Amino acid sequence: MDQVAQIREKIDIVALLSEYLTLKKAGRNFKALCPFHSEKTPSFVVSPERQIWHCFGGCNKGGDVYQFLMEYEKVDFPEALRILAKKAGIELVSQSFSSGETSKKERLYQINSLAKEYYHYVLTKHVAGKKAASYLKKRGIDPKVIETFKLGFSPESGKALVKYLIDKKHFSKEEMLEAGVAYQRGADVLDFFRGRLMFPLIDHRDNVVGFAGRILDNSDSTSKYINTRETPVYHKGEHVFGLNITKEAIRREAQAIIVEGEFDVLSCFQNGVANVIAVKGTALTDSQVNLLSRFTQKITFCFDADKAGQEAIKRSLGVVEKKGLSPTVIEIPDMKDPDEALMENPTSFKKAVKEDVSVYDYLLQKSLASEDLATAEGKKKVAELMLPFIAQITNEIIKEHYLKKIADALDTSYESIAKEIERLSNREKQPTSSTIAKTKRSKEEVLEEYLVALIVQSEKPKSAMQKAIVILSDSMSKDRAYHKIMDHLLGHFETTDSFDGKKFADGLPKELVSAYDTSLLFPLPIFDDEEKLLVEVEKAAQKLKIIYIQDKMKKLADEIKQEEIKKKKEPKILEELKKQYSNLASYLN
């Protein structure tokens, strides 16, 4: 496991997380909106010093580069290790950690990758693929595009791939069934895909997760497309087709064009519109939008011009707005889909791409065209169609813009439209049972965390520690995590004036590291200078001392009550307890 630490040391956490999040400097740390729960105020803090992150908001998650990648990419530790090793330029020498579920996934990736190469070979080199090659040529797909996307063909024979994977590559029948490239009929295991044009489904990390297979001759007796069933590595709602090839173009153009089918992607890519992916004719999911948001802030729908395509756009808007992305639409003039449009008139399609419009302008135009605006009922229907979508807009300026636009189009007042959307919003608000339950902490615990944060984040931590300990030295019990951390700080500054947060953490007992890291990342207010921070240290320490004294007084009051119940059998004990109580009370006065 030495390589785990080696990779952790070589990967800078700020550089890595900047690939996923917008980090902003906040004192010695960085802050961002947490990617693991919905929030408007940044509570996700990253420490370049300790190379860790922590969310102080709803989810309370935290860790190092490995934990972040595992949470964000939804991968297990060995896969996170491989991804980071590649980024760090380190070749892993041991795979002994690959066991159980992880090694199973790796085997499935290997099976899918070999199946991809097999199908591609059949299409491009074998006589069995000639019909499929002719089909692609007829549809105008260039050989370079076939090579780029690794298109293939699954032979008509019922066991061609199964035989290859068992006899040549020594995989088991059970593994092929789990990968989804085969199915069982009786005692026999057969190829799942037969006589189909094959589109490899490859994730953004270049893992082959599954396949989509299309028949060559349209027929009512069988499905035009079939996909790999759900497997441990393939989940339809998380995947988009083509992203492994087009992600750099999406970043470059700052726009992801969403189409419905694989041929739409191929045709767009071949005609120079490379920032494109496909979602198989259904609405976008949260997982897909989260994935795309890593590459762009603009989502452009180019779905089929039929009713199903329009409904898919409407169903997608909620998740796009929730992520704060900008949705637009490409209108294809007089054509069914991008593939058809590019075959008929590529110049017209490319012009439409450059003239994409806001999805809300598009929907409003469609709604106005479908109703009789001369009647009150027609106006009501337009409002009912549009307001649910406008209500989802997170940016208040954009929302107001469209409310005014609807009011003008319906020849009604802005106030009436605003009241209607408010009524709609109130009606749809439902209490949720999925609210994250937070463990309520005492004021004492919060103050202890805050005080230690002030000390360890100070430019002069020794001075801060000295100010705190002068006030608290006779009242800290040292039986809680933050008391123990302060005790270690006190011992540290007895031998040195310097403070290295990382080295100090390395010397702490393991059970205190989490509390210490939380303090090191704790979001502090901005102080004009170090003196004002030291004043804040004194205030926090005084507040804590009062809490400690009040706790002691409460315990003494209970003891006094117990002694009085004994009817003064031990008068000296009772007298001493009352004296201690009086001394503590005088401090508060």
Question: Explain this structure to me?
Answer:
- The chain has 589 residues and is α+β, with helices and mostly antiparallel strands.
- The chain is built from 26 helices and 16 strands.
- The strands form 4 sheets. Strands 1-2-3-4-5 form a 5-stranded antiparallel beta sheet, with helices on both faces. Strands 13-12-14-15-16 form a 5-stranded mixed beta sheet, sandwiched between helices. A 4-stranded antiparallel beta sheet has the order 6-9-10-11, with helices on one face.
- The relative contact order is 0.06.
- Residues 431-438 have low confidence and may be disordered.
Largest sheet: 5 strands, antiparallel
Subunit organisation of the chains: single chain
* Strand order in space, largest sheet: 1-2-3-4-5
Distance between the termini: 58 Å
Please state the overall shape, judged from the principal axes of the Cα atoms.
globular
- Over all CA atoms, what is the radius of gyration? 32 Å
Overall pLDDT metric: 88
How much helix, percentage-wise, in residues?
40-55%
Unreliable sequence segments: 431-438
Strand content: 5-15%
Specify the structural class: alpha+beta
- List the total number of helices: 26
Number of strands: 16
State the gist of this model.
The chain has 589 residues and is α+β, with helices and mostly antiparallel strands.
